[in-house]
UniProtKB/TrEMBL annotation:
Species: Clostridium autoethanogenum
Protein name, UniProt field: Cobalt ABC transporter permease
Transmembrane segments: 12-36
Keywords: Membrane, Transmembrane, Transmembrane helix
UniProt superkingdom: Bacteria
Length: 129
């Protein structure tokens, strides 16, 4: 009699234990998938930031080269236009996969960085006159 009760309870107990284990494993698996997705997004974001910073550093170097190339010129309007064209040519030699929009953004970023104190210099020079 005890043996028949055990034989009836064991399959039910095994089924319950297997069901609980499946539920626990699924919950752990889902949590791992979410964690991996978050980590993947962080890595992708870090790669994008590093790529942008690398492009920005190259853009700064190209800007210095172009600035030196056009350092002495009496016609400022043609110089600005020519500098922009020269910047685009030079940066495309180093980073050929950039789009025109990306080049424009990098140029504006570097120009803003380089030129941020130039108004002060011009004001100071005009104040001296």
């Amino acid at each position: 009699m005890l043996q028949s009760i055990i034989n009836g309870i064991v399959p039910i107990a095994v089924t319950v234990i297997v069901g609980v284990l499946v539920a626990v494993i699924k919950a752990i698996g889902d949590a791992i998938v979410v964690l991996v997705e978050k980590r993947k997004e962080e890595v992708i974001q870090k790669i994008r930031i590093n790529r942008y910073n690398g492009c920005l550093q190259v853009a700064r170097e190209v800007w210095r080269v172009v600035d030196e190339y056009f350092r002495i010129n009496s016609n400022i309007k043609s110089t600005i236009s020519n500098k922009q064209k020269k910047f685009e040519e030079e940066i495309l030699k180093i980073l050929p996969d950039l789009t025109a929009t990306q080049i424009e953004q990098l140029r504006q970023s570097v120009a803003g960085e380089i030129n941020k104190d130039k108004d002060k210099i011009v004001q100071n020079d005009s104040e001296k006159i």
